[in-house]
Design brief:
heterodimer; A: alpha/beta; Pyruvate-ferredoxin Oxidoreductase, domain 3; Rossmann fold; 4 domains; eight-stranded mixed beta sheet; seven-stranded mixed beta sheet; 38% helix; globular; B: Rossmann fold
């Protein structure tokens, strides 16, 4: 009864703030401990309490990267959520619920019967109370029920419940009793086959990975103003501050944040800031400043759909053009995208190195789907990416001249040193047009300095990595080109369809701007059915490619409703193309 | 002894001249900026602060056009944004003096929000507020400090709106250091900047400045006639008493001197429980930090 890739799909629906997040987290941790691969994400409205939300877990003995939009097992806590999401449960699926008064859901029960759905029921509140627990513990009863339905040993989930509620030892026995009552009260329906090996994996989301990458990459100051879905980078940085000595400051707005960060980079340390689209709009003047004073600056732009407030808690890839073009004037910058926690950890470090090497702003694009999806991944490889500051240091400091700072070079890159590190060879980081030491210059020679800065983009373009190809190199039945979070869904498709004998491949842009197209051109030569996949309306990367090359996509799979690409979106598209 | 004499007798003239520029000045003749920069150079040399130990941060405007006229490490940022920019620099180099300068347009219009939070956070920087009560570089429009009724560019019938009282705003925010000085008195400015350089938190120095081209209401001559000194006028004035300070700035007389000082206030860096002033500067801390412990908990 399990689907492709041994994937079991569980969805838990309930009122926002009713605790289903902790139900989901306990389940996913317990599954992880048994060696399962899992992916989980939460759909929720921009509210603290009320409204309904959905926690989706896909679990497998094989490596999986993305989510299905369909449930094999559906767990519901209240009627509003149940009604909203009931149709996600597949024909013949399992419905776990904990209603006290069944009379109120007769219509849904009838519907379930029609669709051959197995109903697994226990009145969770009274069950919790029957073992001495309180109202809140009905969630724990549900955990026990889910665990039993999956045919897993109670001891394995008990461990996680102890981990979660151990801080309140007086209540712990009641929590365990509630879970046990749920477990004992129902029958196993869909026994999970256990993984053969148990290697240690973390459960982590993309924002947390960016924070870890920043700390590992030498960021000593992090500045942000809360904005979904970027806010948890700030949370994680603050949580690590005490142990690592990083300064974490919540500024009064994004303009402040951008300038605090700019100041810290100019001062000579590594810093970072993070925001979403609206906040980045406010930062763009500072991006422009970084462009002219050729000072590194790194910002994580975690996208949600706009315009304006848009869909604050949903996902999208609509800000690629903003990242590439936001800020007045012409200057060099780098836009890089992350696609999952593992590459977010690495890319953040690469971004910091690139910002210093090329002395320009670097924008790290992520989105809500990456930011909040929990994935089981091995611990990140530490020390793999060395910190490269590209600064004049040590003995070389004695040989520099003030005019080296903005020396007009062929590559567009000049020397940079920390203010104060050479007393006599100081320079002006001047937001006004300037000469080679940074002194204000409005003469016609100003054009040469302007050209030097723009020329840097060609240097960057020739040195940035080419995109990566996943799946077969050539002669695929269908090929995709994309960036960011689309990678996860396609990776799952590649393996799913390989089983059916269908060859899929995918060219993934990590370094999006300045865009390199040599490998892409070859990809189009080697594959004849190439499609664009992007989470926006206009196909922004596609337009960029079509502008830079003569390539034409056979088709475009675009999505802009705030939802990520689910497996089914790709399946439908592939089957029709 | 005047501070010129002090500099000469201490043999630190070279420290003063280190900051001097050979560049052609671009301010109008009679602009207050000349003496303000002169006083700042004096204060730095008297305090023994050389180019390796100070970073200048400039806003945009006439004051900002001094950004390449102070021979030292400077950053000339965006209009209205010098306060967070300077605070960011200070985070990176907490043992370096960070001096930021901005006009009244930047401070009380474009970047008014930053003033509130720079004071609230007590970022340890010296802020010289160039108050010439108008937008000089954009040719004389009203600022939020231009007196009501003044005929200005884009206000041909006279400024219709009451101005802000900048020090009333500042004092309402519980600052740690507020002084007022004036460009007509280099000696007083020098001493004021010296005091501010020794303050451990955010030092707000209101610097009244003439603008010979556009400010016809508070001219150089007007200041010469009207400035009064707190020390002389009010021998019992207690700068640690915020209510005295608030009363003082309510007066239209430009009293110069130390207006308010709260040495007990915790500066931003002192408020960071996990940081210590003896810690290395952030510029010396950039290295791979082991995140294994954090990953182990996930």
């Amino acid at each position: 009864m399990q689907t492709k890739n041994n994937r079991t799909r569980i969805q838990i629906a309930g009122q926002s703030g009713a605790g289903l997040l902790s139900v989901g987290l306990i389940i996913i941790r317990a599954l992880r401990d048994l060696g399962f691969y899992a992916v989980a994400d939460r759909e929720y409205p921009s509210l603290i309490k009320g409204g309904h939300s959905l926690f989706t877990i896909n679990v497998s003995t094989e490596k999986i990267h993305s989510l299905s939009n369909v449930a094999d097992i559906f767990v519901s806590i209240d009627k509003v959520s149940l009604t909203a999401y009931f149709d996600r449960l597949k024909e013949g699926g399992i419905w776990i619920h904990g209603y006290e008064r069944l009379a109120g859901i007769k219509d849904l029960q009838a519907k379930a019967k029609e669709r051959n759905i197995t109903e697994v029921h226990l009145p969770t509140r009274s069950t919790a109370k029957s073992v001495g627990g309180n109202d809140l513990m009905q969630n724990v009863v549900l955990i026990g029920m889910i665990w039993k339905v999956l045919g897993l040993e109670f001891a394995d989930v008990e461990e996680e419940i102890t981990h979660k509620f151990g801080k309140r030892p007086k209540l712990l026995p009641f929590n365990i009793a509630a879970a046990k009552a749920g477990y004992d009260g129902v029958e196993t329906q869909q026994k999970l086959e256990l993984p053969k090996t148990k290697e240690r994996r973390m459960i982590i989301d993309g924002n947390h990975a960016i924070a870890l990458g920043a700390v590992h990459g030498g960021v000593r100051a992090y500045y942000a103003y809360p904005m979904s879905p970027s806010s948890t980078i700030l949370t994680h940085m603050a949580d690590m501050a005490k142990e690592t000595g990083v300064i974490v400051k919540q500024g009064e707005d994004e303009i402040t944040v951008a300038n605090l960060s700019m100041g810290s980079w100019y001062g000579g340390t590594r810093s970072m800031c993070g925001t979403s689209g609206g906040g980045f709009d406010l930062m763009t003047e500072t991006v422009s400043l970084a462009g002219i004073i050729e000072t590194p600056w790194v910002c994580a732009l975690v996208q949600r759909p706009g315009p304006a407030t848009g869909l604050p808690t949903w996902t999208g890839q609509g800000d690629l053009k903003l990242a590439i073009h936001g800020g007045h004037g012409e200057f060099a910058r780098i836009v890089v995208s992350v696609s999952d926690p593992t590459d977010a950890f690495d890319i953040t470090q690469h971004a910091l190195n690139a910002a210093e090497k090329y002395q320009c702003p670097v924008i790290i694009l992520s989105d809500k789907n990456i930011a909040e999806s929990l994935v089981t991944v091995p611990e990140f490889e530490k020390g793999k990416i060395k910190i490269e500051r590209s600064l004049v240091e040590g003995k070389e400091l004695e040989t520099i001249k003030s005019t080296d700072r903005y020396k007009i070079t062929e590559s567009g890159i000049s020397k940079r040193w920390i203010p104060g590190s050479n007393v006599d060879e100081y320079y002006f980081a001047n937001g006004d047009e300037h000469d080679e030491m940074g002194r204000l210059d409005e003469s016609e020679a100003a054009g040469d300095m302007y050209a030097k800065r723009v020329r840097k983009l060609e240097t960057i373009q020739s040195e940035l990595p080419e995109p990566d190809i996943y799946g077969t190199e050539k002669d695929a039945d269908i090929s995709f080109v994309g960036w960011g979070s689309t990678k996860a869904t396609i990776l799952d498709m590649i393996s799913d369809y390989a089983e059916k004998g269908v060859k899929i491949n995918y060219l993934h842009y990590t370094w999006v701007h300045p865009i390199r197209t040599e490998k892409l051109e070859q990809f189009f030569t080697d594959n004849c059915n190439v499609h664009l996949i992007e989470g926006n309306y206009n196909g922004q990367l596609g337009k960029l490619i079509e502008k830079e090359t003569d390539l034409k996509f056979t088709g475009k799979l675009l999505k802009w409703d705030g939802r990520p690409f689910f497996l089914e979106d790709l399946e439908n598209y592939i089957n029709n193309n | 002894m005047t501070n010129t004499q002090q500099i000469a007798s201490a043999g630190i003239a070279h420290q003063y001249t280190d900051y001097e520029t050979d560049e052609v000045m671009t301010w109008c003749g009679g602009c207050g900026n000349y003496s303000i920069q002169n006083a700042l150079k004096r204060a730095l040399s008297l305090e023994g602060i050389d180019r390796a130990n100070v970073i200048f941060c400039f806003d945009v405007g006439c004051s900002g056009n001094g950004s390449d006229k102070m021979e030292g490490y400077t950053i000339h940022g965006l209009h209205g944004r010098v306060l967070p920019l300077a605070a960011g620099v200070k985070m990176a180099q907490h043992n370096t003096h960070v001096i930021c300068e901005a006009g009244d347009g930047a401070t009380f219009s474009e970047g008014a929000g930053h003033v509130v939070h720079a004071i609230r956070n007590d970022y340890p920087v010296l802020f010289i507020h160039h108050d010439n009560q108008n937008y000089g570089l954009t040719t004389g429009q009203c600022s939020s400090l231009t007196p009501k009724g003044c005929k200005m560019n884009a206000a041909p019938e006279g400024n219709p709106i009451e101005p802000l009282n900048p020090l009333e705003v500042v004092l309402s925010l519980k600052p740690s250091f507020v002084a007022r000085t004036c460009c007509v008195d280099t000696e007083h400015m020098t001493e004021t900047f010296q005091k501010a350089l020794n303050h451990k938190g955010f030092a707000f120095v209101e610097t009244l400045q003439s603008c010979p081209t556009y400010n016809k209401h508070t001219t150089h001559e007007w200041y010469v006639e009207n400035i009064k000194f707190i020390e002389k006028e009010f021998p019992d004035y207690d700068p640690t008493d915020i209510w005295q300070a608030r009363k003082l700035v309510d007066n239209t007389v430009p009293y110069l001197g130390m207006i308010y000082h709260n040495p007990k206030r915790e500066s931003f860096l002192e408020s960071l429980a996990h940081k210590d002033k003896n810690d290395p500067m952030l510029i010396d801390e950039v290295q791979q930090v082991d995140v294994g412990n954090f990953m182990a908990t996930l």
